[in-house]
Design brief:
globular; 6-stranded mixed sheet; Protein-Tyrosine Phosphatase, Chain A; 15 helices; UDP-N-acetylmuramoyl-L-alanine:D-glutamate ligase; alpha/beta; 8-stranded mixed sheet; disordered N terminus; about 40% helix
Length: about 450
């Protein structure tokens, strides 16, 4: 439980969360000045943490979950900080297998709020993400975690999480995303993400070509060793259906691992996670081979290549950029080749909608376009027009609500059909919540 400032009455959970929710969840103001000031006033909790810092375009969350699961299996108390959440805010801040409790969140907000209000009076208000990052560090410090696995929110160099000095850095891969913020080409984006590299701290990466060159240049300047993961580091050996098996060539030995996370790209994510843990082993941290294989097997990551129903078969994936959609399309073609595809699609209007549609829609027999409650959600009628412009013969229907969209897909589904929900983590999260909200929908079709 977080300690409070002197003479500050503890807030109720309702009042605390109402206050936190008053900040714009989607606002970004880059720079480390506000988060540094906020954390200083809170006693710099991040300086008491051993951090594994994870950046990259895709796979960050999966890598964090794999690393966290391995270290938990080895007996360590591990905090994992992810963003955004899928269904509940508390998913962002987890220690062990426990999401932050309402009581702990309220007490941490009680401590943070006076500092934030002081900063507001100085016209230096921190962003929502900066506040939540401070809450995570406070909670991890007070729970005395052995390791904190921290996912970058956006970019790297000026991301609020970049106040940490990690024991290992990970940059998963680099592709075009948030170009209006991070830069127009891969080198510019790689430069932003390489901003997490610290002096003498090893960095593990699966970046390639020019992006890798940029990362290596920054690492050289900071005397940080680079450990590369490439396509020869891992190989998928089997895919029985609900899980897959990989052979990973580690720094010391080979590992045969199983994971319930789908898609061949998980081989890269697993290799990154194992290599990061190997860097800890090289510094005397005791982790056994069994901890690694069992940890990989136990890792979960909701709404990322997740099967939530067998009858009908429903696959949820929060892919929201061209690279992520390309991975999803490859998974559908490789692992579900005989299934008729019913695609439920909801996107954000500030994403590269055209490229994503061109990648995933050709695989679909039926497309149902919809929108989440996120204020940035693209108009489903616009999505339909874009799809019809791409393929005027495609069967496309519009559902104005998430519930209506998945119910429609459910009614259309036949034996051997695959319902795939994708395009935005917000769309996927809302549909996941609806599907799993106390109904056994595998036995009862929607009315």
């Amino acid at each position: 439980m977080c300690s409070t400032l002197k003479d500050t009455n503890p807030l109720s959970y309702s009042d605390a969360f109402t206050w936190l929710s008053s900040f714009d969840r989607y606002g970004w103001i880059f720079g480390l000045e506000r988060i540094s000031y906020l954390l200083e006033k809170l006693g710099n909790p991040h300086r008491q943490l051993q951090v594994i810092h994870v950046a990259g375009t895709n796979g960050k969350g999966s890598v964090c979950q794999y690393i966290g699961s391995i270290l938990k299996n080895a007996g360590f108390t591990v905090g994992v900080y992810l963003s955004p959440h899928v269904e509940r805010f508390s998913e962002r801040i987890v220690v062990g297998n426990q999401e932050i409790s309402k009581e702990d969140l309220a007490m941490c907000i009680t401590q943070v709020k006076p500092v934030v209000e002081q900063m507001r009076q100085q016209d230096n208000t921190p962003t929502f993400f900066e506040i939540v990052t401070a809450l995570a560090f406070l909670h991890f410090k007070n729970r005395k975690v052995d390791y904190a696995v921290v996912e970058v929110g956006l970019g790297g160099r000026f991301d609020a999480t970049n106040v940490v000095c990690p024991v290992v850095s990970v940059i998963t891969n680099i592709s075009l995303e948030h170009t209006e913020i991070l830069g127009k080409d891969l080198c510019a984006i790689a430069s932003e993400k390489a901003g997490i590299i610290k002096e003498h701290v090893p960095v593990v990466t699966a970046a390639t070509q020019d992006a890798l060159t940029t990362i290596e240049q920054v690492a050289l300047e900071r005397h940080a060793p680079v450990i590369r993961i490439d396509r020869f580091t891992w190989k998928r050996t089997s895919f029985p259906g609900r899980y897959q098996e990989f052979l990973i060539h580690g720094s010391f030995q080979d590992y045969r691992v199983k994971t319930s996370l789908l898609g061949t790209h998980q081989g890269e994510n697993i290799a990154l996670a194992i290599t990061a843990v190997e860097q800890l082993q090289m510094n005397g941290v005791f982790v056994t081979d069994a901890n690694i294989t069992d940890g990989i097997s136990a890792a979960t990551h909701p709404a990322r290549m997740e099967i939530v129903s067998e009858h009908p078969l429903i696959l949820l994936d929060g892919a929201h950029n061209p690279a992520g959609i390309m991975m999803l399309a490859r998974t559908i073609k490789e692992d579900f080749p005989s299934h008729r595809l019913i695609l439920v699609l909801g996107m954000l209007r500030d994403k590269d909608i055209g490229t994503m549609i061109a990648t995933i829609v050709p695989l679909a027999d039926v497309v149902i376009v919809t929108q989440s409650t996120n204020p940035r959600a693209a108009d489903p009628q616009l999505l339909k027009e874009l799809i019809m412009g791409f393929d005027e013969k495609k069967i496309v229907s519009v559902s104005q609500s998430i519930n209506e969209a998945i119910d429609h897909a459910w009614r259309l589904a036949r034996e051997k059909d695959l319902i795939c929900v994708t395009g935005s983590l917000f769309t996927v999260g809302e549909i996941r919540s609806y599907l799993l909200r106390g109904k056994n929908r595998s036995e009862t079709s929607p009315s």
